[in-house]
Design goal:
Blueprint: H1 2-14, E1 29-31, E2 37-41, E3 47-51, H2 53-63, E4 70-72, H3 74-80
Parallel strand pairs: 1-4
Antiparallel strand pairs: 2-3
């Protein structure tokens, strides 16, 4: 639930920013549930990174989403379907 709430807040924050071209900033959010591996990569410019199929699937959820929306995987939906603080609309099958 925390990742979804963070995504919703990110959408709200982005919608309040105006881009240099005068358009409102629009982002997409993708969420998937599962295992990840993490670690610091690099020595000169170390970065904390996440790896794994879960990260790749979440990325595909984002890239196939609609601007201004949160798209979640079926695995995530199973976990949050009964949470009344969210309202979901099925998009149908999306090839990721």
């Amino acid at each position: 639930c925390a990742a979804i709430k963070f995504g919703i807040h990110a959408l709200e924050a982005a919608s309040k920013h105006v881009m240099p071209n005068g358009e409102i900033c629009q982002i997409r959010v993708g969420v998937h549930t599962g295992d990840v591996a993490s670690g610091v990569v690099g020595s000169r410019m170390p970065r904390y990174c996440l790896f794994g199929d879960t990260v790749n699937t979440a990325s595909r959820m984002e890239s196939t989403s609609v601007c201004g929306r949160v798209q979640i995987s079926e695995d995530t939906y199973v976990l949050v379907a009964d949470d009344v603080s969210f309202s979901w609309k099925e998009r149908g099958r999306v090839d990721v």
